[in-house]
Amino acid sequence: MKNRLFVMTLLMVMLFGLPMVQRSTTGATLSAKCVKTTGKNVRLRYGPGEGYGIYCQLPKGTVMTYLGNSSDNNWYRVSYQGQELYISRDYSSLCDCGNSSYTPSVPRQKTQCVVHAKHVRLRTGPDASRYPYFIWEETGKPIYFNKGDVLEYLGEHENGFYKVRYRGYVAWICSDYCTLR
Fold first, then answer.
1. Boundaries of domain holding 74
2. Predicted TM-score (pTM) above 0.70
3. Neighbouring residues of 60: CB distance < 8 A, sequence distance ≥ 6
């Protein structure tokens, strides 16, 4: 019976990981810690700083698992959608996952990329220095998008670029010039 319980516990840890658990000075478990967004459209990043790429933007009140702090203590290291990411402490706060009001946030899947700038061009890959502009075959000229234009978001991002589809073609757009919804 003990072996079976051990195997089941080990399996659960392997599948779901261990939440950060805080212990009191008496050794009793208090509760796991979470991080909750306090601002609107808070960016989750791949590293602890604005120079790192953006994984996604989250609405106010989104809750994720707390993993620790960055070395400079300006960022929380969190687990969100199976990814280890970072969120600025300026737009989030620690909270108690064990209270009755905790419900994991699962935002709906983002499927659109809405342009919020003028004269935005697509690229053939996720890097401005290595990939040329996407050229529309019919005209031989780059395609430009403006504020309000909507592209299909394909769910991938790399180096600050979102993978999108336009008229059946796959291309990349800089995340600085569009918002996912």
1. 29-104
2. no
3. 37, 38, 39, 40, 42
